Amino acid sequence: MAIFLILAPYGAFTFLMLVTSAAVSVFAASAICLATVAIDVARGRSVKILALGSAILFAAIGLYLALLDPALGTLGVKLSVDIGIFVISLGSMLVRRPFTLQYALESVPAETAAMPGFRYANYVITGAWTAATLLMAAANLVLLYIPGLPLWSSLAVAFAARNSAIYFTKWYPEYREIKYGTPSGTLPAPR
To answer: Which pTM value belongs to this model?
Structure first.
């Protein structure tokens, strides 16, 4: 369920970009991000860097579309979103709070969170998501400069990058458990 809530705004954005305007897509994604923030607050959890940052990003792109450049193309909007998420992800690591750490701390016991390597593992997992967003941005950039490529090629790269990051997020804690003998549940598995 947690991974669904985390990815819901991006899935909605991607789907809506296929069936409606870019402005509607980004404002809907922003609203979903704000809903996930509200769910976290209602459950007594911390406000997540990724959710709040994404809400601001989607709203800013929507305002840009509404006020300054309503003709910005689909690829420009997708590229803006990908670059924004990349900046949020990389920025979270640069300020020494990888965005996955917030989710992990809320789903593991305090003893596990205090283990050496726990923070490092979250940097690695956040790095995988950062690389995935970079790949998605690169795919959209290629489509922007080589317009003859089919749209599905960018969607295929995005699908593969996202699913690889999801798989890695699930696999890496299990790998660390086998390699280092850490107790089960060292890192949260996506639900």
So the answer is: 0.87
